[in-house]
Design a protein that fits this description.
The complex is a heterotrimer. Chain A is mainly alpha-helical. Helix content of chain A is 60%, strand content 0%. Helices cover 69% and strands 0% of the residues of chain B. The chains are: A mainly alpha, B mainly alpha, C mainly alpha.
């Protein structure tokens, strides 16, 4: 009952096309059915009734970037773990389960050390504070 | 048939968005066109039957690296995202300037020549009417990672640890003393 | 291994006869054209069903929240207020599309599209039943996590493009929340992949049984914890209370979709509700047995194929909608979590628990050869 050519990916492309159709349809329908009457008051950004001061595109705190960096590392780690996890059960049944377990656990433990390091050094805190240097002086 | 359609869609997406990423003057738009390019590359991987690599591409690149690049651009201070046209040392072409088009044209001629050579090689192949039977690549990748390339697998975890520690050290706030 | 709707139908005589007669009348091999047509019809039906569930989700949210808060909720439009989502959709269609003067036009238009794309492409592998799923990709569950990360980009762009400080803050917080909580979700999914021996939904569901004691949630204590890690991280991933800081009404004036009006806002909301449904569907497939019928194998093999598929679909929707009710229930019960505690919950609680979960499941696989706890005790 399995399909052995690349038609398995056809629904993915079809659903992407359906998403485009839904978006385009919604925009076109609203263009037809609604009126368009832009005034300066409607077009300013909403700030609970006050006039907005300055632009919003200012420099942001570095904590967002640190979260993104740590996420990338764990993302790549989990991507590497997926194929090994997928063959774990099969190899376990023919008896090589212990060997795969040792490989798997050594991979995870290295990254567990990484997260322990980040936790201890305070990189996982949302509010980042200055680090003490070795003599204890801030 | 489906392979050709998907290849055409992906190739057009890649070409269009990568040219747009080079030509636009706004760096945030560049990041978004890069997202389109990476999605197109993932489509190409599907035509080559590398389903695991295609989904990895979406997960790591589109879901992670594009967001990281957007955060990084926001971090560098966002008064002006539009490039003004001052060249660096007079050598490197700036986004959207005339030299971008000139270099792009030369690059297109070179790659067009290579492409034509490849096409001439492909169309001389005998016509095969039966489609290849495909097999999923996940199990083979898993088994190879454990048997042949286990050292690379373990060393990649050490490499990721190094990257994690390095980026954490760089991103820590430092008191200027 | 990889089966699709078309390969399921091609088991049956009537499908093959129809293709053969169509080929004879038209003169060429119409298998590809017929399969494309079947895929299109099935995809459209599934999209309409899921979009309706998304729309009714808004209605269900208002009714259930009214019930929890001891009031009545919408009851004017249609019987018991059931046509309320239709009224909302028609209202949003006729609202003016306000485009802020200083906003970035390209990204303003692109942000809802990315959210809609990220959510609707996950419907292609939704495990509705063993035959009627659009496609049982071999990388099924991995594909769903990968494509859901497009929603994070959409949230960030929505916040950035509006050029309003509320939106920008909501967008950046939303994007960092979504990417952070992907880590515990992915690691708890790896634990289930270890137990079931494959990433395809078909394999995961067939490793479980239909009765509750055969589900993965009761397989061993690690998967029990894993279910809650997955569920809580999924709530945070879809920006759902108590993790809804990016769109908190009292704090950020609706966050990253403050400046969106009309149909674009409707698309953001639709994408969110369908994403919650997909999350509940994936949780019920991975941990609660999916579409498996709670009947012994001997009875199932005697039933006609159409009945089996129908009952599997019904069971799938019952489980997914039960979890949907729990998601709505949690929203109106718990208070909102502050942003720094939100991040520390992810990185200091959920991720270490998920990693220890994974280690525990791997050791269980080797030591107990993958047998469930109840089988070990009662043998």
């Amino acid at each position: 009952m399995s399909s052995e050519n690349l038609d398995v990916f056809l629904p993915v492309v079809i659903m992407a096309v359906i998403a485009v159709v839904i978006y385009a349809g919604a925009i076109i329908a609203s263009k037809i059915l609604s009126n368009l009457n832009p005034t300066p008051q409607k077009q300013t950004a909403y700030e609970c009734g006050e006039e907005p001061v300055g632009t919003a595109w200012s420099q942001f705190n570095i904590r967002f970037y640190v979260v993104g960096l740590i996420f990338i590392i764990f993302d790549v780690e989990s991507v590497l773990m997926f194929p090994v996890a997928a063959v774990f059960k099969e190899l376990n049944e023919i008896g090589h389960g212990g060997y795969v377990l040792i490989i798997f656990l050594s991979f995870i433990s290295v990254l567990l050390e990484g997260i322990a390091y980040c936790w201890k050094k305070g990189d996982l805190n949302w509010v980042m504070s200055y680090q003490k240097n070795k003599s204890g002086v801030k | 048939m489906f392979i050709w359609v998907l290849f055409l869609i992906s190739a057009l997406l890649i070409l269009g968005t990568s040219v747009a990423a080079l030509v636009t003057k706004n760096i945030m738009h560049s990041c978004i066109y890069l997202l389109g390019t990476l999605l197109g590359i993932s489509g190409l991987y599907i035509t080559l039957n590398a389903d695991f690599v295609a989904v990895t591409q979406i997960m790591v690149y589109v879901g992670g690296i594009v967001i990281l690049m957007l955060f990084a651009v926001m971090l560098t201070g966002g008064k002006e995202f539009v490039s003004k046209g001052q060249q660096l040392l007079g050598l490197a072409p700036l986004m959207g300037s005339k030299s971008t088009y000139v270099f792009g044209l030369f690059g297109a001629l070179v790659f067009g020549g290579i492409f034509a050579k490849l096409i001439s090689y492909i169309v001389k192949l005998p016509i095969d009417s039966t489609e290849q039977k495909i097999q999923s690549t996940v199990e083979s990748i898993g088994k190879l990672l454990i048997t042949d390339h286990v050292l690379a697998f373990e060393l990649s975890s050490v490499l990721l640890l190094g990257a994690l520690v390095g980026s954490a050290i760089i991103a820590r706030p430092r008191r200027e003393s | 291994m990889n089966s699709t709707v078309v390969s399921f139908f091609s088991q049956f005589e009537f499908f093959n006869d129809a293709v053969k007669s169509l080929s004879e009348t038209l003169g060429f091999n119409t298998y590809a054209a017929v399969s494309l047509l079947v895929f299109l019809v099935a995809a459209t039906v599934l999209t309409i069903v899921c979009a309706t569930i998304g729309g009714l989700g808004t209605y269900a949210e208002r009714k259930i929240s009214a019930d929890i808060q001891a009031r009545v909720g919408p009851n004017r439009v249609g019987p018991y207020g059931l046509l309320q989502p239709l009224a909302d959709a028609l209202k949003l269609l006729t609202k003016e599309d306000i485009f802020p003067a200083n906003a970035d036009k390209f990204m303003f238009y692109l942000a809802p599209f990315l959210c809609v794309l990220g959510v609707f492409t996950t419907l292609a592998v939704l495990p509705v039943s063993s035959g009627l799923t659009l496609t049982h990709l071999n990388v099924g569950v991995f594909y769903i996590i990968a494509v859901s990360s497009l929603v994070g980009v959409g949230v960030f762009l929505g916040g950035y493009a509006s050029n309003s400080k509320w939106s920008m803050l909501g967008g950046m917080r939303g994007a960092s929340q979504i990417i952070s909580y992907e880590v515990p979700i992915t690691i708890s999914i790896i634990a289930i992949v270890v137990l079931s021996g494959g990433m395809s939904f078909e394999k995961i569901v067939s490793s479980q049984g239909g009765l509750p004691h055969q589900w993965f949630i009761f397989h061993n204590p690690f998967t029990f914890i894993g279910f809650f890690i997955f569920f809580v991280s999924g709530l945070a991933e879809t920006n759902r209370a108590p993790f809804d800081l990016p769109e908190a009404e009292s704090e950020l004036v609706s966050g990253y979709h403050t400046e969106y009006t009309g149909m674009r806002f409707a698309l953001f909301a639709l994408a969110e509700y369908v994403e919650i449904f997909v999350l509940c569907a994936v949780a019920s497939t991975l941990f609660l047995g999916g579409y498996q019928l709670p009947l012994p194998e001997t009875i199932v093999s005697k039933m006609p194929a159409a009945a089996v598929q129908l009952w599997q679909t019904v069971i799938f929707f019952i489980k997914a909608l039960a979890l949907y009710y729990v998601v709505i229930w949690v929203r109106w019960t718990l208070p909102r979590i502050r942003v720094d505690r939100l991040m520390s919950i992810c990185w200091k609680v959920l991720t270490p628990f998920a990693i220890f979960n994974l280690i525990g499941v791997s050791i269980w696989m080797v030591v107990f050869k993958g047998e469930s706890l109840l089988k070990i005790i009662f043998h």
